[in-house]
Write a structure and sequence with these properties.
Elements: E1 3-7, E2 10-13, E3 18-25, E4 33-39, E5 46-51, E6 57-59, E7 67-71, E8 77-82, E9 91-103, E10 108-114, E11 118-123
Parallel strand pairs: 2-11
Antiparallel strand pairs: 1-3, 3-8, 4-5, 4-9, 5-6, 7-8, 9-10, 9-11
């Protein structure tokens, strides 16, 4: 059974930084595609960063320049470094794992396993 565990959320003021870490373990596959999503109140869930099973990462245009994702080759650990945070970044950040993607840049994958999410709150 696949387990997805997020950590690193919290409360910061505008301009602050946070690091989110997602660890995927278990299941029948050695490596998974992984992604960070965020749910901001009043908005649809948004893909923030995606990583292929081979370690390639792509960050969404909406957060480029402020957020950077990284994944060490050969691991199922996806890190999201968030800098210059703004109040509009506040929300629930969730990590997901997938075995198959048909539209990588569009976050189109079979996201079958999700973590519980970690809350990010940015105050002005």
């Amino acid at each position: 059974q696949v387990q997805v565990m997020e950590s690193g959320g919290g409360s910061v003021t505008t301009g602050g930084s946070l690091r989110l870490t997602c660890v995927v373990s278990g299941g029948r596959y050695k490596h998974y595609s992984m992604a960070w999503f965020r749910q901001i109140p009043g908005k649809e869930r948004e893909g923030v960063a995606i990583s292929s099973s081979t370690g390639r990462t792509v960050d969404a245009d909406s957060i480029k320049g402020r957020f950077t994702s990284s994944r060490d080759q050969g691991t199922n650990v996806l890190v999201l470094d968030m800098r210059n945070l703004k109040p509009e970044d506040s929300g629930l950040y969730s990590c997901a794992a997938a075995n198959y993607c048909w539209g990588f840049s569009e976050f189109s994958c079979d996201w079958t396993d999700w973590g519980r999410g970690t809350q990010v709150d940015v105050s002005s």
